Amino acid sequence: MRTALWQLFRQSPFEGLKKHANLIREAAPIFRLAVLAYLDENSAEFESYHNKITIIEDQGDGIKRNIRGHLPRGILLPVDKFQLLWYLREQDKVLDGTQDALHWLSYRKTEVPDELVDDLLLMIEKVIDVLKSVHPLVEAADSYFQNFSENQRNQVKQAIRLIREYEFQSDQVERKLLSDILSYPFVNATSAYHLAELIRDLGDISNHAENAADMMRAMIAR
Questions:
Q1: CA-CA distance, 24 to 134, in Å (whole number)?
Q2: How far apart, in whole angstroms, are the C-alpha atoms of residue 86 and residue 48?
Q3: Are 178 and 194 in contact (CB under 8 A)?
């Protein structure tokens, strides 16, 4: 019965969620290149990638507004509307986070000490893993809500577990980096602050992805 009701809509909200998640996936390699350009002190390349992320984030906002504006009225949704909107909010914050981190980097040219570079790059890779994991989650959820099969529900749960694992790994690197940054003898305290806030911004990307995954878990709960 739920499947029949779902098919009454001209377009599932998950079509928009998949488009939005695809933008997050597209942003991942660009985000990595932007940080690498910053570390290489290549301002022109950094700004080029920064602008690309800004454009992608703006496209994401457009999709978000479209989803919110076209949710069906009434009680036909096979998921709780509040949960769906909260999920959308957290998924959008994942994309927002990439822009926020690059905005923050653009405010100041801070030289990253050699002792911190490897862990910073590791942190970036953990964030990239998170960015790439959102689209498979939405794809799996879309398939599940079309027929509610137990096999597809398990695929959604596996995608959720993967995002949680990536967030855990990101959190471990974040904690070490923050400790090392605050212990490092920077000549200028502003450099320490700039880098510490960057790490927190990166951590927030993973946190919002985990929040989205947790809300998806609630949406598929029986």
A1: 8
A2: 32
A3: no
pLDDT tens string 166-204? 999 999 999 999 999 999 999 999 999 999 999 999 999
Asked whether the predicted pLDDT for residue 6 surpasses 50, the reply is: no
Q: What is the pLDDT of residues 119-135, one digit of tens each?
A: 999 999 999 999 999 99
Q: What is the 3-class SS of 21-58, one letter each residue? A: HHHHHHHHHHHHHHHHHHHCCCHHHHHHHHHHHHHHHH
Backbone φ and ψ for 6, nearest 5 degrees, come out as -60, -35
55's tokens: 């454009």
3 state SS for 168-197: HHHHHHHHHHHHHHHHCCCCCHHHHHHHHH
CA nearest neighbour of 190 among 100, 109, 97: 109
Distance CA 180, CA 196 (A): 10
Domain locations in the chain as residue ranges: 2-220
Q: How far apart are CA 123 and CA 131, in angstroms?
A: 12
Could you tell me which CATH number the domain at 2-220 has?
Answer: 1.20.58.220
- For residue 14 the two structure tokens come to 């998950």
Amino acid 4 reads A
